Amino acid sequence: MNTTKKYAATALAAALGVTVLAGCGSSDDTSAGAGGTKGSGSKTVTLVSHDSFNASESVLKEFTEETGYTVEVLKSGDAGAALNQEILTKGSPRGDVFFGVDNTLLSRALDNGLFTAYEAKGLDRVAAATRLDDKHRVTPVDTGDVCVNYDKKYFADKKLAPPQSFEDLLKPAYKNLLVTENAATSSPGLGFLLGTIADRGEDGYQDYWKQLKNNGVKVVDGWEQAYNEEFSGSAGGKKAKADRPLVVSYASSPPVEVLYAKPQPAEAPTGVATGTCFRQIEFAGLLTGAKNEAGGKALLDFLISKKFQEDMPLNMFVNPVAEDAELPELFTEFGAAIDKPVTVAPEKIAENREQWVQSWHSLVVK
């Protein structure tokens, strides 16, 4: 789950135009998402998601007006927890569409047969680089980049150029400045580890982390602690008197700092080290055994529509995958354009993730 989205979720909750179901199901036993009796003729379509799904009321109302379907959202914790619940209930899913599996978990979902193939209408408008499953079991919906963020004021005061690459982070000038998340417990932490593997290779990432540890990297459990308690550039970090001017977060974090600042600054207080970015791609898929398959297909079509794609950035702080979707001014003015993010093939992640995380943990945490 993109935890920058979690950062904004509370402020945006009032704008939701959906019925949000918490926990494992709805109290209404006729709900399609609660294992009820609604069949293919149902006018409710249930989207199972991680906790960060948000959409504007007007956009979801438009979906209802166009299709006749009302969207219910079943939020199920972070991306890993939500996926685990679907694996446990596969064949008898809690909803019709699952949103939020990313390229770090994709092979696990596909290997477990969670999705029924469906080629969404308008898929030809979606960036080819994001279409990782040629069998159309999942549809790409958004991208986000895990990157090192920096506190602009700190580096200006020190008259020190901020780092821009993985190699820069090893330099003595940045000793004891970086905080990252535990790769075993945090999505951005895992993304950053995978970024170093993509950059240094399977034979070089362990030596890289030894050097990074010697250069004083600090590891904490999750993004909330890293960004809002340890990072001096965030609003939360300033209140906490944080002392680390480098943090693993997202390329979309600077626009968030601007959006929620009062008054809004003319310039984002944080920047992005664009050479440290790992690309995450989030997907949605039609759940095998969905009670409302027709509604699920209609929702998948809608998730890649221009209307929904242009609504996402200021609701979930991610980038659209539709090539005809335009970014809002907040993103273009204050966000960082990541032209050359690193990535790792989903099947390679699936094959090696556990071993990579264990090796990393032994090197860095123990």
Concise summary:
The protein has 366 residues and is of the alpha/beta class.
Please, could you describe this protein's structure?
The chain has 366 residues and is an alpha/beta fold. The chain contains 15 helices and 11 strands. It has helices at 3-12, 57-67, 79-88, 106-111, 152-158, 187-200, 205-214, 223-230, 235-239, 253-259, 293-303, 306-311, 313-316, 329-334, 346-364, and strands at residues 19-21, 44-49, 70-75, 97-102, 115-116, 139-151, 178-181, 218-220, 246-250, 270-287, 319-320. Strands 1, 2, 3, 4, 5, 6, 7, 8, 9, 10 and 11 form an 11-stranded mixed beta sheet that branches. Helix 7 (205-214) runs parallel beside helix 15 (346-364). It is globular, with a radius of gyration of 20 Å. The protein starts with a helix and ends with a helix. Mean pLDDT is 89; it is low at 7-39.
Strand and helix map with partners:
Elements: H1 3-12, E1 19-21, E2 44-49, H2 57-67, E3 70-75, H3 79-88, E4 97-102, H4 106-111, E5 115-116, E6 139-151, H5 152-158, E7 178-181, H6 187-200, H7 205-214, E8 218-220, H8 223-230, H9 235-239, E9 246-250, H10 253-259, E10 270-287, H11 293-303, H12 306-311, H13 313-316, E11 319-320, H14 329-334, H15 346-364
Parallel strand pairs: 1-3, 2-3, 2-4, 7-8, 7-9
Antiparallel strand pairs: 4-10, 5-10, 6-9, 6-10, 6-11
Strand-and-helix sequence, N→C?
A: HEEHEHEHEEHEHHEHHEHEHHHEHH
Mean pLDDT reading: 89
What Rg do the Cα atoms give? 20 Å
Strand percentage: 15-25%
How many E-type strands? Answer: 11
Q: Report, as a whole number of angstroms, the end-to-end distance.
A: 26 Å
**How many helices does DSSP assign?**
15
By secondary-structure content and strand pairing, the structural class works out as alpha/beta
Q: Give a short account of the largest sheet.
A: 11 strands, mixed
The residue ranges in which pLDDT falls below 50 over 5 or more consecutive positions are 7-39
